[in-house]
Design goal:
about 475 residues; two-stranded antiparallel ribbon
């Protein structure tokens, strides 16, 4: 059976077989001595997280999903598979039109259903794209109800949307007049629920997934759900306890900056993969043209190990822009607005951003930002990027930071697609979390080593064939 439909560089997920979802859910709910993540379920979640950006959703129909709807730009659109006289080709055509123009809305997500052992309700939440609304969510620093403020507000919008999402095909099968996603959420509170919620997302979408699962569990007592986050930002404030006690998997790469920002902790069980730069996604021509400055950013990024050091870096970056904002900045503005000199980053804006980072650090850690580390970053920015225009600086920054963060792209194997394909080789799908990880505020689970490291170690021999002295 062909495991993927359109793109051989994707994860290779098989959506005909959904047993891995139930196996992973059962394992993470029981919290036994070994917790099992099914490799095919991870691949499916990577695909769903990529589909949430609005591409390839027609594949869901070919895999048996029904009642597919898409929310974007404050609008919810749906196509009903069981519409009388609607041919498959017409249905697919309508599905391809579900994706709305990327506009002012801060939330993009799709909903679909599939009948398996239970009715699987799939929710895919997209991450950040280059819109002001998205970045307003990310940069809405502060804490609300213990969560990152911007993500918490965005989750409120998601909860409101869930009351509007309908599943007419499933309603007919069950013999009820109407069925909304909120009705399904209510039933998922019961032990004998006919439904299970499967929520996946990438980047900001993974952050929203964590808060959604946390709130559904804590506020409504929902039992039948599982979340999968790909390259997630942190969402929980410093007062959260038992951060691992949620039915959530978070898949991360060590070089990805996104999992170092947003809050103090991730929610759920987290598996971090060390990947070499050969798996990072770049346009070859753009990378070669900017290689020197991209690698300079990598040298700075090597000092970012947690949210505190990341806040020190962005604090220094704002200070650098304040000091050097005249250096090529207005030339960049001209390329956007012609001869009109419109200052998109006024000094007051940058100063407010810098103060916001310092205040957020105070809220998370209860102490001031690490100024010696911030000075190290500032010295590095002045050393590596002296004379570089603002547009080139930001281009190199995005190249350096987005490479380890990318999800599925056409005709390119990205870091998280590689992880999904290589999961059995990495042996990270079955591991024993430390006891303290299940109870304390620990950000990363310890996973087993790659397969090649699991072999018996050969003792180093001296030249005469005897064991060498250590």
């Amino acid at each position: 059976m062909k495991q993927y439909i359109s793109n051989p560089f994707h994860s290779g997920a098989d959506f005909h077989n959904m047993e891995g979802l139930f196996a992973s859910l059962s394992s993470i709910e029981k919290r036994g001595p070994r917790i099992y993540l099914d490799p095919n379920f991870l691949r499916q979640s990577v695909e769903v997280s990529a589909m949430s950006y609005g591409k390839g959703m027609e594949e869901l129909y070919q895999y048996g999903f029904v009642d597919i709807s898409y929310y974007d730009n404050h609008r919810l659109q749906a196509v009903e598979a069981a519409e009388p006289g609607l041919r498959p080709v017409d249905y697919l055509r309508r599905l391809t039109n579900l994706r709305l123009p990327r506009g002012k809305g801060p939330l993009r997500t799709f909903f679909a259903a599939k009948k398996a052992e239970k009715y699987i309700i799939c929710i895919g939440i997209a991450g950040t794209i280059l819109t002001l609304a998205d970045w307003n969510v990310n940069m809405d620093l502060g804490l609300q109800e213990g969560y990152h403020q911007g993500y918490y507000k965005n989750t409120e919008l998601l909860l409101q949307t869930m009351r509007q999402v309908k599943f007419p095909s499933i309603a007919r099968e069950l013999g009820v007049d109407a069925l909304t996603l909120w009705d399904i959420v209510e039933e998922c509170r019961q032990e004998d629920s006919r439904f299970v919620l499967w929520i996946s997302g990438h980047s900001k979408g993974a952050a929203l997934m964590q808060i959604l699962v946390s709130r559904l569990q804590n506020e409504l007592g929902v039992k039948h759900m599982i979340g999968m986050g790909i390259a997630s930002a942190r969402v929980a404030g410093p007062d959260f306890t038992n951060v691992a006690n949620y039915p959530i998997w978070n898949i991360l790469t060590k070089a990805d900056l996104v999992n170092k920002l947003g809050g103090a902790y991730l929610l759920g069980l987290n598996v971090e993969f060390p990947l070499g730069s050969q798996y990072f996604l770049y346009d070859p021509k753009t990378y070669v043209e900017n290689m020197e400055h991209v690698e300079a950013f990598w040298r700075l990024f090597s000092k970012i190990t947690d949210p505190s050091s990341y806040l020190s870096f962005v604090y220094a970056l704002n200070e650098y822009l304040i000091q050097r904002r005249a250096n090529g900045f207005m030339d960049f503005v001209k390329t956007l607005h012609g001869e009109e000199r419109k200052d998109l980053l006024p000094k007051r804006f940058l100063e407010n951003m810098r103060a916001g980072y310092a205040a957020f650090h105070e809220n998370i850690y209860g102490k001031s930002i690490n100024m010696p580390l911030a000075k190290e970053f500032l010295d590095g920015l002045n050393l590596y990027f002296d004379g570089l225009s603002f547009s080139k600086l930001m281009q190199c920054y995005l190249l350096a930071s987005n490479g380890p963060h990318a999800i599925l792209r056409d005709h390119l194997l990205t870091p998280y697609a590689h992880i999904a394909r290589a999961l059995p080789k990495h042996r990270c799908y079955s591991f024993v979390p430390q006891k303290r990880y299940l109870h304390d505020k620990i950000s990363f689970a310890k996973h087993s080593l790659p397969k090649r490291s699991m072999r018996k170690k050969v003792r180093k021999l001296s030249r005469n064939g005897k064991p060498a002295d250590r």
